[in-house]
Design a protein that fits this description.
CATH topology of chain A: Porin
Number of domains of chain A: 1
Distance between the termini of chain A: 13 Å
Largest sheet of chain A: 14 strands, antiparallel, barrel
CATH class of chain A: Mainly Beta
Oligomer: heterodimer
Shape of chain A: elongated
Number of helices of chain A: 3
Mean pLDDT of chain B: 89
Number of strands of chain B: 24
Mean pLDDT of chain A: 87
Number of helices of chain B: 6
Low-confidence stretches of chain A: 1-30, 430-436
Low-confidence stretches of chain B: 10-18
CATH architecture of chain A: Beta Barrel
Order of helices and strands of chain B: HEEEEEEEEEEHHEEEEEEEHEEHEEHEEE
Strand order of the largest sheet of chain A: 2-3-4-6-7-8-9-12-13-15-16-19-20-21
Strand content of chain A: over 45%
Helix content of chain A: under 10%
Strand content of chain B: 35-45%
Radius of gyration of chain B: 29 Å
């Protein structure tokens, strides 16, 4: 008990360190997907920690060992208070027809706390998750030519993007009966998209005070969202111990009113001052999202899941750059997965029987298209869950490997592998165990 | 738990950043962020003034009839020093002569021979106050010396015994008022060109020393009757008495003289709105040189080449423009691009201050070369010249919105 509590707080203490690691890395190189530099960033797959190993959101996969991020309806089934924290490490090896680069990124994935208001009837959730993430470094080089210049001036512009849109969500789930649960969550979407544009010139006369020009861009704003979920399950479908769950969640479109500003340092009349180049209001509209899935439990040890995610990015808006908005397209993602839970069988005694194993595959046709070429992502996933022997806490470790994009049409191909670690703590602040 | 963090640590240790080039440069186009825009510069005026003509590095003597820049007549005014470093008294047996050291570059018909006469100045010495186009009066009734110059490096001219005798009296004066009496009462001499001259020679007054040699300057010699050198007396004070006349119409261009007779005043009229959302990274003021004066010059006629332009700005309009320009460091400048025959003056900070600043800064005052006693003029293409030759401002900006 005390060990778990200490572990949880240790993880909380690690949060600032994750931020620190990001700061360190910013000075070296941005390391996310280059495609996150378009519009409001790359959409983040919000998976429940127990289904990360399948690469699925878990909309139809309920686990008493981990709270659900994907379906508010599952919160009504909560028996114990649960908390979850997920950290991730993703490596990108990017290449186009001319060059390649490799970078890594350590990220905070999500935090969630679910607690039952009425055990197995009404549960509430509070969570903080990224919705989109911009995390990239772009380099453009060119030549500034004029008949009046002594020589053409070469320049290199480095754009380092960071931030994204984060979701802070509060919601309730209610179990209507043994077969149906419903849920709702209201959320605040907070946008903080930043870019540092640094330009070096071959002619020092273009670099005032001998330093490259640096312009900071920031898009800040907030909007409100609504998410609904339904979870249905039925048992004894094809046999005496099987069970099936069919569930869906809908996230309504979100309008985020934002303000974009460009700032830089400028020496005016001998004074170095930070000035705002301009500031404009705009709108970021996030898409309607439908996430549906079916999970079939052959028995308590074997389960199969299939999911479909649709986001109508084609109707989304990024008013600051209509050309980037033009790259948006509707996004569909499908995935299948399998989980094996030998630890549920009390008669298994081998070491390998202490875990849950997950594998899965996903295909995402992407939310961006360039000249008709979709930025697709195909991934394989695997995971290992280490459940507690004494309670419903667990640790989820998942791996994924895949490919995004292509080198054709002057695009960029990204070979991605990642690692996620989730800590799921259940009932750690409740008295129930003391009575056991 | 410990295992999980060990795995995470392992992943940290095996990952690194490794860039082998620019990935995705064709995916994103950022070149259009940098823009270069040409603005015509129409608000140009010539301010007439006259720079100081005393105690400069050179002193000009001669007459030149320049078909572009007018007739320049210049006499050199100078006065020997009465310093007693080398001799304590000027004996009756000693004579005085003047050694004139010339700048190798001449202005005008360099093939001609010039005739010069030396007279006394007919007014109280005011060497430090003399300005161009402010000639002093000369007593041409008493000739002190005369000489001719073709292309020599130096000329030695004996000074008349009458003038030497007057100088001896001041030199040997032992009263307490010796220095002040000499400064105000003893007349300097003027080296005056004969009217038929068509060349200007420049006397050297500033010694330049390098590793191998030192350049001698104009000075006086104290000698015995047998021409044995007893002492060298430096020139205590010197100045130019210069006037320019018969100035042709140059309204098709912009004429600048390093004597500060013509000072260019350039003003820009920008609004912040024009640069809204942009960052000014470079601004260059371009002036093309009008090469016609060079190509139409008579055979053998040479001018001293102009090599740079400089610009001054002031917080408030100066009371004495030539004084401020003479005394202050230029804020901008440009050397001549002799291939393109133009000047590129980087005025980035000035433009930024004009666009975003709150102070009422003055326009940019542009002068040529430096006021050093040489006569250097240049003609720049004016606002009515061909579009690609007019004065223009090239402003480069970053527009992060692109």
């Amino acid at each position: 008990m005390y060990l778990r509590a200490l572990s949880f707080f240790a993880l909380l203490l690690l949060l600032p360190l994750t931020g620190y690691s990001q700061v360190i890395e910013e000075s070296l190189s941005r390391s996310g997907s280059i495609y996150s530099g378009f519009g409001s960033g790359m959409p983040v797959d919000i998976n429940s920690s127990n289904t990360n190993g399948m690469g699925l959101s878990g909309v139809a996969t309920y686990s008493p060992f981990a709270p659900s991020l994907s379906n508010p309806a599952q919160w009504g089934k909560s028996e114990f208070s649960q908390g979850q924290l997920t950290l991730g490490l993703t490596n990108y090896r990017t290449s186009d027809n001319f060059a390649s680069a490799q970078n890594s990124r350590f990220t905070f994935e999500s935090f969630q706390f679910v607690f039952p208001l009425l055990r197995n009837k009404l549960g509430a959730s509070i969570s903080f998750t990224p919705y989109t993430r911009a995390d990239f470094a772009r380099v453009n080089q060119g030549v500034l030519e004029s008949a009046d210049f002594d020589t053409p001036v070469d320049f290199i512009t480095t754009t380092v993007g960071a931030g994204g849109i984060n979701r802070f969500e509060l919601g309730l789930g209610y179990q209507l009966n043994d077969n149906i649960s419903i849920g709702y969550a209201g959320s605040a979407y907070l946008s903080t998209l930043t870019e540092e544009l640094s330009t070096n010139f071959s002619d020092l006369g273009f670099q005032r005070t001998g330093r490259p020009s640096q312009i900071d861009k920031e898009i800040k704003g907030a909007g409100f969202g609504n998410r609904f979920g339904v979870y249905t399950e039925a048992d004894q479908i094809f046999g005496s111990v099987d069970r099936v769950s069919v569930s869906a969640a809908v996230n309504l479109p979100i309008n985020i009113s934002t303000e974009r500003s460009f700032e830089t340092f400028r020496v005016v009349e001998g004074l170095n001052e930070r000035v705002e180049l301009n500031s404009t209001d705009g709108t970021i509209k996030l898409p309607l999202e439908f996430n549906g899935g079916v999970t079939y439990y052959l028995n308590p040890y074997h389960s199969f899941a299939a999911e479909y995610l649709f986001q109508n990015w084609g109707e989304s808006e990024f008013s600051y750059d209509l050309s980037e908005e033009g790259f948006y397209k509707n996004r569909s993602k499908i995935g299948v997965g399998y989980q094996y839970q030998p630890f549920m069988n009390q008669q298994n005694s081998g070491f390998l029987s202490n875990f849950r194993y997950s594998i899965g595959a996903t295909y995402d046709d992407g939310h961006l298209t360039f000249d008709g070429q979709n930025i697709e992502t195909a991934m394989l996933h695997a995971g290992l869950t280490i459940p507690s022997q004494r309670n419903r806490s667990s640790i989820d470790i998942s791996f994924n490997y895949g490919v995004r994009g292509t080198q054709s049409n002057s695009l960029v191909k990204e070979n991605i592998w990642g690692f996620k670690l989730s800590l799921n703590l259940a009932e750690f602040m409740f008295l129930q165990q003391r009575f056991q | 738990m410990i295992t999980a963090f060990m795995v995470l640590s392992l992943f940290f240790s095996i990952t690194s950043c490794n860039n082998e080039g620019v990935v995705g440069s064709e995916l994103t186009q950022g070149e259009e962020r940098i823009e270069t825009t040409t603005y015509p510069v129409d608000d140009i005026n010539i301010v007439s003034d006259s720079g100081f003509a005393g105690l400069l590095e050179y002193s000009a003597i001669g007459i030149v009839n320049d078909p572009v820049y007018g007739t320049v007549t210049s006499s050199s005014l100078l006065k020997p020093s009465i310093t007693q470093n080398e001799i304590e008294s000027f004996a009756d047996t000693l004579s005085l002569s003047l050694v004139l050291n010339f700048n190798p570059e001449r202005y005008g018909d360099t093939t001609s021979t010039s005739q010069y006469d030396i007279y006394e100045i007919n007014e109280r010495w005011r060497g430090q106050e003399i300005r161009y186009n402010d000639p002093v009066t000369i007593d041409e009734s008493i000739l002190i010396g005369s000489f001719q110059v073709s292309g020599e490096d130096s000329v030695r001219v004996p000074i008349s015994s009458a003038y030497t005798e007057r100088f001896r009296q001041f030199f040997n004066d032992t009263t307490a008022l010796r220095d002040s009496l000499y400064r105000f009462e003893f007349p300097g001499i003027a080296i005056v060109p004969a009217q038929q001259n068509n060349k200007i020679d420049f006397l050297r007054y500033q010694e330049s020393i390098d590793d191998t040699s030192s350049t001698l300057v104009t000075r006086f010699l104290v000698e015995t009757m047998q021409d044995s050198l007893i002492a060298t007396l430096p020139v205590q004070d010197h100045a130019n008495s210069m006037s320019r006349s018969n100035i042709p119409d140059n309204s098709d261009g912009i004429v600048l003289h390093n004597t500060l007779e013509n000072i260019m005043n350039v003003d820009f009229d920008f609004t912040q709105e024009e640069f809204d959302g942009k960052e000014v990274i470079n601004a260059q003021l371009i002036f093309n040189v009008d090469t016609a004066p060079q190509t139409t010059a008579p055979l053998g006629f040479k001018r001293l080449g102009n090599e740079f332009l400089r610009g001054h700005t002031f917080d408030t309009e100066p009371f004495s423009l030539h004084s401020e320009i003479f005394a202050r460091q230029a804020v901008v400048g440009s050397t001549l691009d002799d291939e393109e025959n133009l000047y590129r003056i980087t005025v980035t900070q000035y433009v930024i201050d004009r666009i975003y600043g709150e102070l009422e800064t003055t326009p940019l005052y542009i002068t040529n070369q430096g006021n050093n006693g040489l006569y250097i003029s240049t003609k720049l293409m004016g606002t009515d010249a061909a579009e690609n030759m007019r004065p223009r401002l090239i402003i480069s900006t970053i527009n992060p919105d692109n």
